[in-house]
Specification:
four-stranded mixed beta sheet, 162 residues, alpha/beta, Collagenase (Catalytic Domain), single chain, cytoplasm, hydrolase, zinc, metalloendopeptidase activity, ribosome biogenesis
Amino acid sequence: MTIEIEVEDWPDGDWSALAERAGDAASHVEPVLANARLETSVLFTSDAQVHQLNREWRDRDKPTNVLSFPMLERDSLLALETDGPPEMLGDIALAYETCAREADEKSISLEDHTAHLIIHGLLHLAGHDHVTSDTQAEAMEAMEIAALAKMGIADPYGDRNV
């Protein structure tokens, strides 16, 4: 998977390298993300921009930490051959102020929280969901925990050992 990164309204930092590491970790726990044909964009932006995107595309009039916009259905992603032209997996947008506030509230680094949210967003792009059922939510959380462990980041949920 190739990740195109754009950074606006975030403090100085190597956000591109973090996104690449998170993408690599996510592809270890969700192998369909390892397909070299896949392209994803990650936008590091402001609460105001994410609020606008959330209102426009999700009919939710508030900012949130991360938004994912999948462009492939899970069945299409699973059937995607490894040879062929690039395929857009989808887009992710991260809201700086919300991410920073949440990291502060959890007493974790902004980098660790951001890595978690990128992995979370990538798993959504891969067709995983945590809203439909508790079983799906637990499976998605387990993948997040495993991917973060590959990056040396502690379990963000703090209530399981994976």
